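BUG-669 | component: ligand-complex export | severity: low

The export step for magnesium ion jobs runs without errors, but we want the raw record kept on the ticket for reference. Input record follows.
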Amino acid sequence: MQSLNLGILAHVDAGKTTLTERLLHDAGVIAELGSVDDGSTQTDTLALERRRGITIKSAVVSFVIGDLAVNLIDTPGHPDFIAEVERVLSVLDGAVLVVSAVEGVQAQTRVLMRALKRLRIPTLIFVNKIDRRGADAERVVRGVADKVTPAAVAMGAPAGLGTPDAAVAPFAPADAAFTARAADVLADHDDAVLADWVRDPGAVTGARLRRELAAQTARAVAHPLFFGSAITGAGVDHLTAGIRELLPAARGAVEAPVSGSVFKVERGPAGEKIALVRLFTGTVRTRDRVRLAGGGEGKVTAISVFDAGGAVRRDAVEAGQIARLWGLSDARIGDAIRGRDGDGAGGSEAPARHFAPPTLETVVVPRGGADRAALHLALEQLAEQDPLIGLRQDDLRGELSVSLYGEVQKEVIQSTLADDFGVHVTFRASTTICVERLVGTGAAEEHIGAGDNPFLATVGLRAEPAPPGAGVAFGLEVELGSMPPAFFKAVDEAVRETLRQGLHGWDVPDCTVTMTDSGYWARQSHSHATFDKSMSSTARDFRQLTPLVLMTALRRAGTCVHEPLHRFRLEVPADALGPVSALLARMRATPDAPAISGAVCVVEGEVPAARVHELQQQLPALTRGEGVLESEFARYAPVRGAVPERPRLGPDPLDRREYVRRLLRRVPA
Ligand SMILES: Nc1nc2c(ncn2[C@@H]2O[C@H](COP(=O)(O)OP(=O)(O)OP(=O)(O)O)[C@@H](O)[C@H]2O)c(=O)[nH]1
Ligand SMILES: [Mg+2]
C-alpha cells in the first residue's frame, strides 16, 4: 500500500484538530466524533491540551483512503509552539493549510505558507467553518490570493454560508468555473497549456487540467482550494478525494540503503527513549543496528507503526512510513538515520530552521523546596523533546534558564514540570534574547612559546561580518597540511562555541572566521622515550587558546547588540486610534500611517519583541475588547539606548588572567 505523510497546519483555532477528528471519523477509524470543546479528540491527548482546548504537541494518527495509507500529523497553531511544526516539516509529503472562513487569512497562515512554499511541500488549502455565522467565501478567497498564494484554484463552491446547512458543490472537471481559473493558474507554469488555451480554450479538456493541476500541486506551484466544515462534515468528503487525487504519495525504494529522520522524541512509561522516525528509503527491522547523526549507533529493539488510529507492533518499517523506534538511546530530534553499512555519515548539522528562533528567555525558579538537581534533570528531558528551549545553566548564579516563544509556553512548561516530574516552579519575568553583529573586521594572533601565551599552540584568526542568516563559517588561509586535522577541528569547534557569547554575552549568529596562522610542537620525547606533555601540543591547547584570540579579534572588529523586532498588524475601532497611538509610542513601536476604512482602523508597523506581550495585554482596555493584534518576528535591529548585557557562562576569555588561571588549574601537572 502507498503511504502519504500529511501535515495539517493553520493559525490557532482554525479547526485542525476538529478536521483531523472528522477525517478519522469519515474513514471509519472512530465510531464517534470527539470534540475539542469537550476534550475528547484523538490528537489532543495531553491533560493540558484538553483543559485549554488548544493543541500543544504535534500528534500522528493514521487512516486509509482507498489504497492509500495516510499518516496525518495534527500540529499546534499557537505561535508559541511553532517549534513543534518546524520539526515535522521535514517529514511531510503534503499538507493541508486550514483557513477559517470567518477569520480569514491570519498572521500564522502566512508564516506557515511561506515555509511550505520554501520547502516545496505540496499543499491543499481548506477553507473551514463555512457553517459559522460571519463566514465569507469571497473575502477569504481574496485574502488567500493577496496574502497566501496567487495560485489557488477553487475546487468547488459553497452554498448556505454561515448556516448549519452550509454545503459544498464540487466543480466537475468540465465546469467553466473550474476550467477558466485552472487554465489561468496552470498556464503560468506550463507553456503547452498556455499555447493550447490561447489557440482554442475548448480543446483543453477538464480532465487534462485536473492532471496538470495534480502535477503542479506536486511541484508546489499550484494550490487547490476546498471549502467545508469540520464540525458538520460538509465538504470533507470532497477534501478527502482531493488528498487522494492531488497530493503525491511517498516515494522511496524499500530495497535501497536506509535513510530516515528523527522528528520527535518521547519517553515511554518506564522512561525509555522512543524516537519517531520518518523513513525515506530502505527498510529497518527489529534488531537492526542503525547509525545516527553525531556518530551514535543503536540497535532497534522494537518498532511500532501507526495504524487506523492506534499503534501496532511490527517487525519492520519501510520507506515512506512513520514509526516509533525503541532502542536508540542516543537519538536526538533532527538526527538523520542511516543503515549500518550505508554510505556517508548521518549528517551532523543542526536541523534546518524554517521559522524565527525563540526571542525570549526566562529563569526557572524552583518553588517550595523543589531541588535544583531534580529541576535540572527534568528540564534536560524537556530539552530533549524540545531542543529550542535551549537550557542554560549558570553555575555562578545557580540559575537555570530556558528560551521561549511566548508566555503561554511558560504555562505549559510549568504544568509539564508539575504533572510529569513533580517539580514545582515559577518564572522570572521574560527578557529578550538579543544577538551581536560584527561592526567591522578584526584580527588577532598568539604564537607558541611567545609573549604570555600559556598554551602550546599558534592561532591567528580574522573575524569578518557576514549577512544575517549566513551563519558561522570557518575557513583556512594556512595550509591544510600544516597541522594534524584534529587541531584544526579543535579550532573550528572552539570558534563556534566562543561565538555563542560575544563581547556582551549574546550569540553571534553570523560571522566569517578565517585562520591566518597556525603552529604546534610535535610530539616530543626525552631520551628515556616517554611522551612529554609539557613540550607537545594537544588539541586542548588549541581549544583553549582559540577563545582568547577570537575575543581579541572581536574586540578589534567591534560588535553591536541587536534586538528582535516584530512586524505587527493592529485592527482597532477608529475612535480608539488616539489612545492606541499613545500606547504604541510607549511600547517603542514605529507604526506606518494608519489606514481607516469606516469604523475600523488598521495600523501596521514594527515593535520590539520585548513589548509585544504588554501591548497585547493593554489593548483590550483601550479598544473595548475589540482590538486584534497579530505579530510575527521580522528582523533584528540595533538596540536603541542602554546596551543589554547577558551574564556570561563558563570561563570568561575577556578576562585573560582569570581565564588562564581557571583553565590551567584543571590541567594535570
Ligand atoms: N462552527 C464551526 N466551528 C469549528 C469548526 N471547526 C472547528 N471549530 C471550532 O473551533 C474551535 C477550534 O477548533 P480546533 O479544532 O481546536 O482548532 P485547532 O486549529 O486545532 O486549534 P489549535 O490546535 O489550538 O491551533 C473549537 O471550538 C471548534 O469546535 C467548523 O467547521 N465550524
Ligand atoms: Mg488543534
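Assignee comment: Attached the raw record above. The two ends are 65 Å apart (CA to CA).
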